[in-house]
Amino acid sequence: MQVRGLLLLLALILLAATAEAGKNKKEKAKKDGSECEDWRWGPCVPNSKDCGLGYREGTCKDESKKLKCKIPCNWKKKFGADCKYKFESWGACSAQTGVKTRSGILKKALYNAQCEEIVYVTKPCSSKIKSKSKGQ
In which family does this protein belong, per the annotation (predicted)? Predict the structure, then answer.
């Protein structure tokens, strides 16, 4: 019986210590946090080349911060990774130009990015004609 009581007491002490450690972490986060609510964030600047891990700088009144960010390496669009658009389907292929076009309407601007409301993208027409083959 004494062993069970000792184990129960040890478990309660461990639980209390864990709860106290959680409180300290929350208080520390509040101390490190900023009172400022009107942050202005710059674009994500990669550490090297034009994609990958990097930093975004933000300012609010006389405070400044740096956040880690990432630009995917397959992201080559001119409107930037901080502007999210909802795109229509691709239009028909233009025989004159050999490209097809579609437009996108701004859905979300991350970090107060300056984004265009509507963007247009083009791509070359496919030379292949897709056909569905039926299995026998």
Answer: Belongs to the pleiotrophin family.
CA–CA gap between residue 9 and residue 15 (Å, rounded) = 10
pTM assigned to the model: 0.54
C-alpha span between 123 and 121 (Å, rounded): 7
Domains in the chain, start-ordered, CATH in brackets? 36-72 (2.20.60.10), 74-124 (no CATH)
CB 74 within 8 A of CB 85: no
pLDDT of 111 > 90? The answer is no
**HSE-up of residue 8 (Cα within 13 Å, Cβ side):** 5
**pLDDT value for 28:** 41
Structure tokens at 42: 């710059």
Residue type, 15: L
Per residue, the 3-state secondary structure of 64-100, as one string, reads EEEEEEEECCCCCCCCCCCEEEEECCCCCCCCCCCEE
Q: What 3-state class would DSSP assign to 24?
A: helix
Residue 44 has pLDDT above 80, yes or no: yes
